[in-house]
Amino acid sequence: MSALSRLLRRPAVQDALTRVAAAYIRLVWRTGRWTIRNGGTLSDLIARKQPFIVCFWHGRMLMMPNMWPGTAPMNVLISRHRDGIFISRTMEHLGLGTIAGSSSKGGAGALMAMVRVLRKGEYVSITPDGPRGPRMRVAPGAIAAARLSGAVLLPLCFGARWRIVSGSWDRMVIPLPFTRGTVEVGAPIEVPPDTDADAAERLRLRLESDMIARTRSLDAEIGVEPVAPDMEAGPAAAGAEATQ
Q: Where is 32: in which H helix or E strand?
């Protein structure tokens, strides 16, 4: 292990970096010209105390913490991987709770933790294509959590004019300060408690199609090149929906 790697593993260094990351997310939001589209959908669900699971792509997570009012406790499903721990601490600095879990380790436990959180009146957000992809492909975990909890699925996406797109598997979109951007809330998707395997697959495809189309539309509208989904289709990620 290099000296830099050892340095980055130190708790004090990690705490400082997560605080910087949280500060950057706030800076981009406060200096940008952001349009929130269909925000009334989110407000209405909160007012009606309807549980919901926010779904956004792993590569579009950075602006999402800015969407939650302080009166609506939000919990983000986070991978137990080291990168997930970094993101978890960043989310906590932004006032969000976290649920630890992934498809490979603790997946069933994470699913039940989400259900418990939703049943006590809090909310959950997940990245249906995380933590390892395939990019912009919905895994089945979101449908299962909604079916068990009675929550609706709520697609969410943002596009930014001034941005950096990383070379990572998820093509993470990193908005720059003073950018112009749009955050769009989709229509809620209900998952009945008696949903069988065939119906669950149709709902999974519906959510995936909605999120892909919404992402492409926002990017095209704002004048940037859309990020393409991974060519590998569907639930090949074996239920991975934790944020890494």
A: none
